[in-house]
Amino acid sequence: MNKNQKNSRRQFLKKGLIAGAGVAIGGGLVAAYVDVSAAETGEKVKVLTTDGEIMEVDRGLLKLPRVSIAESHKGIPGRKFVMVIDLGKCKNARKCVEACQKGHHLPQSQEFMKVYLLQDSEKTAPYWFPKPCFHCDNPLCVSVCPVGATYKRTDGIVLIDNERCIGCKFCMTGCPYSTRVFAWKHYPEFDEDKEPYSPEASSPGKEGTVSKCDFCPDLIRIGKIPYCASACPMGVIYFGDVDEDTVTNGTETLQFSKLIHDRAGYRYLETLGTRPCVYYLPPVDRQYEVDRGFGDLEESVKERYKDTPYSKKNKQ
Amino acid sequence: MKRVFVFSLIICTMISMVFQPISSYAENNTDSTNIPVESRMALNYICSSDSLLLTATLSIKKGDITLALENATIEYSASNGAISKLLGKATTDQEGNAVFKISSAGLPADKEGMVSYSAKFPGNNKYPAAEANFIAKPAKIKLFFSIEDSLRLMKVTATQKNENGEDVAIPKETVNIYVPRLFSLLKIGEVALDENGTGTMEFPKEIVGDTIGNIIVMARIEEHDQFGFVQGENMSNWGVPKQYYKAEVPSRELWTPIAPLWMIITLLIMLAGVWAHYAYAVYELVMIKRLSKKNKPLF
Amino acid sequence: MELEQKNPLRDFSPQLERTSILGYAWIVFLLGVIGLGFYAFLAQVYEGHEVTGMRDNVVWGVYIVNFIFFMGISYAGALISGTLHLFKTAWRKPIIRMAEFITIIALLIGPCFILLCIGRLDKLHYLVLFGRIQSPITWDVIAISTDIFGCFIFLYLSVLRDLATLRDYELLQLPNWRKKLYRLLALGYTGTPEQQQRLNRATDIMAAMVIAIAIIVYSVLAWIFSVTLQPGWHSTIFGPYFVIAAVYSGSAVLILCMWVFRKIYHLEEYITKKHFVAVGVIMLVLAAFFGYFTFSDYLTKWYGSEKNDELLIQLLFKEFYWPFIISNYIGVLLPLLVVGIAKLRTITNITLTAIVVVIALWLNRYLIVVPTLESPYLPIQDSRAAWLNYSATWVEWSLTAAGVAIFCLLFTLASKFITIVPVTGLIKEEKKEDILV
After folding, report:
1. pTM of the entire structure?
2. How much is the average pLDDT of C199-211?
3. Identity of the residue in C134, C188, C201 whose CB atom sits nearest the CB atom of B289
4. Quick one: C24 exposed, middle or buried, by C-beta within 10 A (0-12, 13-18, 19+)?
5. Which of A164, A209, A300 is nearest residue C119 as measured by Cβ atoms?
């Protein structure tokens, strides 16, 4: 009996080892054949050279100029940037969020552009609310920074210098719009960016520092509007120079003063006195109903909105 | 044993293949024989008052993915069906665009004056050749500014050359009026041309120009069957002067690099007051030490 | 005849000369807790701040609560020593040193908690190099450095006499290096009238300064919160509120220290029930003030019922119900009852009340920092639990425990270095009838 047991155990072990070896080799074979890294998200843009060499570059981020930190303190001369967001067209497609994350090499957990489902009061209608940094003209975040790591430029853009930031997070409590994000650890996405750091690119990020939407000055310098504005399929986000009185969403170009006048543009939480530079157009004559915003979302994203009055009402 | 080995190898290979999404291409491996590779070319044409701008965009489509091709040499030529004239070459930038500018004179035109432009990518061992065509007839748009009855007006005329080389009006077209802005063109109006190829429009009141009111105005005929894109420009100083904040002296606010003066003064006064008292206390301690050297211990 | 007089130093010298087994065991225990804290700190340095419970909305958690708490305790010295010195109350004498030690030690530990909260410690010197005067944190850095320096000078001035006494006491059985240290630090003070005059003048000035500085420091700390626009923080009352809460917590910690040292070093003769009642009365008065300020703050928020204030109060009464009750009801009423009612006014009761007050005030700071951050203007719409609600992790609790342990350790070591009760004054006071009011 004993001998049999021993034998059967030995047999079992041997079989197990061989099976394990087979698994390892088989898995290795498949892995060698398939390019795993390229298959991950599939949304990277690769630029081909005529020799067939592929240079991997993020979509839209094609060799953008990166100015030094000292240069980034000076704004683009003669400009003052403003953004207009049309709430009547937003259906939470979240292409703005994703394009921004790709363009700035952000992990999934950091969003410079956030989309909220807001409902101002019980009987008013809910709406999707994309919120970038407002680049306020009276920026509390800049006032409270103890080391001057964040600064407002002459072109209105508020930037953060990662090298100077000590990570005290006072600016995050100073911002009433919850705009800033903190790098709680070193995210692998930061390593994707091999270029030298520039506050205008807000990339590569650094652990222990604060970052936020930067209105993409590196894109502006080559005549392009920010990632979010060009990525939005509905043309919700308009960007432009307010002194030039023009904003564009990539497709339409409109006169800013006329747009605000005709569509009753406003600024969010105006009474706080921060003087934001992002204007919103109220959702009049909506193109989509609110529930279209839940359409293709992943579960983890849908769950974000489960405590909103709209979701609670619809459960009943 | 052998059976077990082979069996497990097969099983796990199958499982791995189920769970590994296979990419349509691998890095540095450009030729996958079963994935079709297509070259695509697009050609844009703009006819200005003195030159033609041909912009070719070259991209490669592999399966589902379209990529711009950089550093490719594009050959431009113009023909009228019979004669073909090589115009020149240009190289694509990182977005796949190659821009080529030529003068509108000396181009082979057919009987109706149409010229066929083509941009060709000869192809190489990796990618197939691609070509795009555009047929258009040169035309000219002129823009004038005038004041009539204290109204500011813009007058647009569109002309083309006839067989004798004379300028003939283009009647009954729609011309869009634009102002070039930082990222794009802002449309400020539309003019309908009459039979004489002329149209007038009032200059809009609230258009911002540069700091002294100069503004470039552009008139374009767009997507015309015969003429393609035609544009003409002129500069006016009827724009509203652009006002942007430029401080003579750096401002001092809560959020500026330099603090408001009153803050600095208050801080200095308070610090000076406090540390002066500290200095006094330390002075007394020093004096105690000095005194001890003189005295004998009493206690 | 003077030599035959009873020398109280004989009572106190054993404290300085020997440490009992229990004392050593206590120090080893404290070192163990500090070691655990250090391990937690290393975990935070290597793995990033993700190991804490803080996330993008609640960016300030237990570390900042501890910072405010320890800074608050440091006010004990300013009050008891400073104010009572200026009023020349006699009964303050046995307890002033404890109060000043509390001040200094808490001032050394408090800022360390801020350092734990900072993302890039290697850039810390930027606070000095590139400090912006418009930032409340810069004000805080300046204020705290000034405060530490001032309190050091004040402590030094008040121990100077004892250092001289210890230097001159020949029967002291201590290693030579300590005796040399006493000689060095005593600055040759021999009690001559001129030296006494200088010492008194300096002490008077510093007592006034310490009070002023402590008020400024704590107000600046309050303004770090109240100048932001966060609902719940943007309150005009925060400056005085924080100052009162600080003094309140300081007095409670002082009572605890009095009780502990009285027990360990058998100081029943010097620290009597009258002292406990006196500090207890201070605690009672401050409890009343604290309750008044808290009530005033929440009444204003609740009555006006601005939307975000309402959300905050709802949050306080739902998720933070018990901490709110303990800190704002029990923490206010208990001292009023225990010290107010004659029958309840015993040393043990007052000490137990002090323990409850310390806990209540720590919770009060927690309730100021965390619930506001959990209810910002733009609702937190996130699916991850850690990002919706803050809960401190083992790293933060270990470091809190380590902070308390360092406080106890430094206090223990300080009490070994110099007598915990000022001795020189007692020798003189022996002649007077009653040293206690």
Report:
1. 0.85
2. 91
3. C188
4. exposed
5. A209
